[in-house]
Amino acid sequence: MFAVDLEAAPNDDESMRKNYVGPLAPDFGSLDTVQGSITPSLPGLKGRVVVLEFWASWCGVCHVLAPTLNGWHDRYSAQGVTVLGVTNDPVEVAGRTAGELGMGYPLASDATGQMLRAYRAYALPTLFVIDKQGNVRDVLIGYSTPRLREIEALVRKLIAEG
Questions:
Q1: Which conformational region is residue 109 in: left (phi greater than 0), alpha (psi within -120 to 50 degrees), or beta?
Q2: What is the CA radius of gyration of the chain?
């Protein structure tokens, strides 16, 4: 006989980090601008830190996350950070919701669902942090105040990296 140590099954957050953290992020595919200035491809954002949020108008937790992302957009965009929200909602619905929630960061609609599938962002909200070279550095599914603090610290660290 032999002894085996079993680990607990990873939760969704841990699984996403294992699958995505490290390699290059998938490209964006085809996006329609909802608001703001949208760079339609990941290579176009090289040299910037990207906080990529997948959200929806009907997602209550996404509504709670919006003020945090607004704050990050306000604080860090001049320092080389792009906060980008992507939804499968039609442009009109996304624009109306953005106005109601006071979302001030750039937003895009992924009408084809191509980007959502590439990132496997099936639970909302899902955040990806992408470094200046285009590599995924962290993933968060849902809302967690401690994890959001960790992600903001990571964003500040990535800003400082050459």
A1: beta
A2: 16
Instruction: For residue 83, give the H/E element and its range.
Output: strand 81-87
Q: What is the pLDDT of residue 22?
A: 72
The token pair that represents 132 in the structure block: 């200046």
Q: Using an 8 Å Cβ cutoff, are 90 and 96 in contact? A: no
Give the separation between CA 141 and CA 83, rounded to whole angstroms: 16
Residue 38's SS3 state is: coil
Whether cis (ω within 30° of 0) applies to the bond prior to 125 is yes
The per-type count for the chain, helices as H runs and strands as E runs, is 5, 6
Q: 24 falls in which pLDDT band (50, 70, 90)?
A: confident
Q: In one letter, which amino acid is 64?
A: V
Please check the confidence at residue 4 and state whether its pLDDT lies above 90. Answer: no
Residue for token pair 């990529």: 52
Whether residue 70 contacts residue 102, with contact meaning beta carbons closer than 8 Å, is answered with yes
Q: Measure the CA angle with vertex 39, ends 154 and 131; round to 5°.
A: 20
Pair 51, 77: CB distance under 8 Å:
no
Assess whether pLDDT exceeds 70 at residue 19.
no
